[in-house]
Amino acid sequence: MDSAAGSRLVQQLQAESQRQKFTEQVSTLTSRCWDICFNDSRPPAKMDGKHSGCLANCVDRMLDASQFMVDHLQNSQLAK
């Protein structure tokens, strides 16, 4: 395998890893926010504004918390 092919393979593996992490994050957010916003395990017959707003706010809070942690860890690494 030449250098260019190896480089492409590494890039493809990194892209696949990022896709997998994104999929895992979406699944985690969906599960956590569903449990928070829907006390009943049954899905509603129709999505109303209350549930829709709850899901949107929950996801926003989770993403903000995740970004805060990433920023904090990066700042900690830079301070060393």
CATH architecture: Orthogonal Bundle
As a percent range, the share of strand residues is under 5%
Oligomer: single chain
Largest sheet: none
Helices and strands in order:
Elements: H1 3-37, H2 49-79
Helix pairs in contact: 1-2
Subunit structure: Heterohexamer.
Domain Tim10-like: 11-75
Membrane topology: Peripheral membrane protein
Overview of this protein structure:
This protein is mainly α and 80 residues long. It has one domain: Mitochondrial import inner membrane translocase subunit tim13 like domains (Helix Hairpins, Orthogonal Bundle), CATH 1.10.287.810. Helices cover 82% and strands 0% of the residues. It has two helices and no strands. It has helices spanning 3-37, 49-79. Helix 1 packs across helix 2 (49-79). The longest helix has 35 residues, at 3-37.
Outline:
By secondary structure, the protein is mostly helical. The chain has a single domain (3-79), classed as Mitochondrial import inner membrane translocase subunit tim13 like domains (Helix Hairpins).
Overview features:
single chain, 80 residues, mainly alpha, Helix Hairpins, 82% helix, flat, mitochondrion
